[in-house]
């Protein structure tokens, strides 16, 4: 059985006003997640705004994360860039810095076929001796990892897991069914709002961005599901769905990405977890009215007094 | 009046079998284009497979190009990466290496609004003292540079030009109309197959990928249009449309991108311009049957005996 | 509490070789569904190939259905056509013929805004004294009924329910949460493969096309969920997921719609429920090899010896 | 050589406040177009809001149109509905009422493959003895008539022409090239804003919606192109592009379709051609502020004092 499972939040990357990483805040985020009982951490994912960071910053983040986590939970690292050989470079750095597994998307900017996606994962697997997790995120890369692609890669050992952020729950279910005999493969949903149902389907883990704000909620949800108490799981999920509505507060004024991660950061600042809610360029930060609205939602969810 | 105009091919990047850049072949490509009378060259664009190259390789390509071109024609350089500050890093390198202008897309992987796109260009303009050309390529970045975005950036001086590879000729025409008074702004179409009509609309330049294969044809087309001989321009364009059909020979077996640029490379190899038709990973090269079919098309176009 | 709930299959419309409706087979389909314990029937939906039927045929189908059903379960009728006043005409016919409720999509062919969609439903509601169910099926009408649109219509009483075939389970969940206090509103999922999880979320009903083939399975699934036995519900669902794979047998040779409904008809013919698997023009019927493969899947699901 | 060619406007359908057709206004529209020198009229197309009209209204419109046109120019009639046999019914009515040709889209609501689209046209051709024009309008039917589909249908005689409203000018050009030897086939662009360039490519006709407002402009443009005066054609086109901006005046408040055809009707009312600018449900009419802005654009285009 794989050591990867459970609640594995994609870690928000707090920034200083000069756009450098705010490592003291970053350390507090990691401690906050581990203290709450999360089963792993996923750094340098989309929620971490990985795509805004250059190679040196990425290396620093991984090394800092490895030092803080210190083996207490698995450290999963996103190695996200457009094409195969650039990903290989990131993967080597991640392995050297102590990643337990790396997370790889389909190529992007370049338009790829499923056949090229298969080769992409195989080339990376052959080039770096580190476990690969496939990341299905069509909203960012504009191609879906099809069921057959994921199943083929898992069966031939090219990947050890999947993070499914496609929103296609039916397809995710078929991957679970197809790989049911492969006990060493773990399949995680990237959704925040259908975690109870993904667990009912048999998902091995969940990667909810908003767990940065409320990790305890997702750990309770996970525990309820593990003991088969689906009523409790559902009730916790519904509370978290209401909390998740912070991501739409700024939508329209800013892009969906800026509204969502900006809301996470704004909430974490209100909760004292991080010092500032600075966003990388060209994203704009949330404003005062939006912050006030987010604070209301935090209060309704029982997170803020 | 701007110094940028005319036929400005996006330069194919020939590779060695070990995936390094084949500089002797690369030099021949540049000489081939300049000898044919092209009015500029655009290196490190989508046709150059820029997105597959790491920072060091990009720097080497720019420096090599600057040395070969040596001021004979303007050197325009793509600085294409997902987010603002990463693009700024590339733009500084390009400027230092002698670029006359740099070409910038909207952010990608991250989903952006038009407002964030405006800021993206403004931040880059403020950070680097080099002329910016906006690159509208929704097929790669999955967002359109809207007419109002382009016109706003041009009017405020943030960009000096546009390369429109969106296929939306009506929108391109409105940009031409809206900016007709701005004589220092140049608007180029990225299409290969409607160059005559783009020139009739008033386009200032054209960036046809297949000009790597047949630059003389596009120079003749440009000259015919300049003297108002639209019948000759159309006739030349129709011949080039038939030549352009090489890009579909391998489609289906490989992705559209691999089929298209693979066809350019295959044709250039058949014509003796470059030594090999190697593709960057995960793209596959064209096979023998596809090469034979491409050679047939080259013969029909009068390029091969 | 609404009288609508439970398993409400969208009824397949069997055809004769001359493309007229095969009413003896049609009657058997209805009896098959009601005998199995289905809680309602939905005729003239997408699975019924409503869009291929003219006004007279639709009227005949409704009248025939009303006669066969004879009040044993609710009769829900699709009134699907592109624009408001054409839908009103169908709705009047459906009401006169005995429909308990009618199912209305967003307008199609014409591109509409959410505001026009709101008006569309309100105009129909005002014109015909019959209960409306909103049908969210973006794959056919190419616009999503947004959460706020559905909630607004439900709260103002313009609709009494929703059939959600959008595949967006997160959005469906929010509609359930937003309307939790409205006990007279029923929300149904159109999915076949996530019925257990939709019921865990609190869905009031399910509209699975493949229930035409195996209604007993979905009734068992519903009953398991009603008594809170989620393990049994999941197990039944997983069996049905394997059965559902018949819809992909012909995909590629014919369109997805023809492959899916063609598979339902082919399976129902193999099971002796209907006499022929004729498809309306321009759809092609499944061939012998595809039928053999479908029979294999039926055997694996325990439906065929 | 075909009798179809030139400027063939899609005729706006004026409505009375009770949503019936305003035939006196409708007659004036037809006379206005024929007097201006248009070479044909296309009734019951998308611009005619065909999809809002029931069978009886459509029949009345065709019969009225045939009576008014009275053979002075060809009468082309849209027979637009979702599926094959429903289109056949409309086509028979159109033929009986005097249509010179009928215009057929791909199926819609149902998702179709290119193979099914081929069969769709063939079934209609076999069922009705009337000339078919293929209508490529992916924005409404959500599938493209691919180049090979159009060329196949034209070569086998199933269609005699094409109305291309896809905005894909490159693809249109290839259809022109592929069918250059078929002198009996006519290919028309549905665009308003690239008519000069479509004619340079060799288009046989143009179907501009805004010709309802300014038919003289398009006739002048056509005539300039016929005599090879591309400078004059371009200049006329640019004036018409500025006029066409009326279609965006209401966009955002209402859907794009309502904004566009609503603008045509509003302008035609201001010009005294029709009596009211009523829109079919659920579309909203333009308001006073929007009308005032449209009148300004009409004045700038020299159409209103």
Structure write-up:
4 copies of one chain form a homotetramer. The first copy, chain A, is an alpha/beta fold and 305 residues long. Chain A has 12 helices and 8 strands. Chain A has an 8-stranded parallel β-sheet. In chain A, helix 1 (23-35) packs across helix 2 (55-69), helix 9 (215-226) packs antiparallel against helix 10 (230-244) and helix 11 (256-270) packs across helix 12. The mean pLDDT of chain A is 97.
Topology summary:
The structure is a homotetramer of 305-residue chains.
Chain A: E1 6-7, H1 23-35, E2 41-43, H2 55-69, E3 75-78, H3 84-96, E4 101-105, H4 114-127, E5 132-136, H5 138-141, H6 147-155, E6 161-164, H7 169-178, E7 186-189, H8 195-201, E8 205-206, H9 215-226, H10 230-244, H11 256-270, H12 288-300
Parallel strand pairs in A: 1-8, 2-3, 3-4, 4-5, 5-6, 6-7, 7-8
Helix pairs in contact in A: 1-2, 3-4, 6-7, 8-10, 9-10, 11-12
């Amino acid at each position: 059985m794989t050591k990867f499972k459970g609640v594995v939040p994609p870690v928000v990357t707090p920034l200083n006003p000069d756009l450098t990483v705010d490592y003291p805040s970053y350390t507090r985020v990691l401690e906050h997640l581990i203290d709450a009982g999360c089963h792993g951490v996923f750094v340098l994912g989309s929620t971490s705004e990985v795509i805004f960071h250059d190679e040196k910053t990425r290396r620093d983040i991984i090394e800092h994360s490895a030092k803080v986590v210190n083996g207490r939970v698995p450290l999963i690292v996103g190695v996200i860039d457009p094409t195969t050989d650039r990903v290989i470079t990131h993967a080597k750095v991640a392995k050297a810095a102590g990643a337990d597994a790396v997370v790889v998307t389909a190529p992007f900017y370049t338009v790829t076929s499923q056949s090229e996606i298969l080769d992409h994962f195989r080339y990376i697997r052959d080039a770096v001796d580190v476990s690969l997790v496939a990341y299905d995120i069509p909203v960012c890369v504009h191609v879906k990892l099809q069921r057959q692609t994921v199943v083929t890669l898992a069966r031939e050992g090219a990947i050890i897991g999947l993070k499914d952020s496609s929103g296609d729950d039916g397809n995710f279910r078929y991957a679970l069914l197809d790989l049911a005999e492969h006990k060493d493969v773990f399949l995680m949903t990237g959704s925040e709002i259908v975690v109870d149902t993904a667990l009912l389907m048999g998902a091995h883990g969940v990667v909810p961005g908003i767990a940065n704000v409320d990790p305890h909620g997702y750990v309770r949800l996970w525990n309820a599901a593990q003991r088969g108490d689906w009523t409790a799981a559902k009730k916790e999920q519904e509370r978290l769905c209401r909390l998740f509505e912070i991501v739409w507060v700024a939508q329209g004024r800013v892009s969906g990405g800026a509204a969502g991660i900006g809301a996470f950061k704004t909430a974490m600042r209100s909760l004292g977890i991080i010092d500032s809610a600075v966003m990388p360029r060209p994203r704009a930060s949330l404003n005062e009215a939006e912050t006030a609205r987010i604070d209301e939602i935090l209060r309704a969810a029982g997170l803020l007094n």
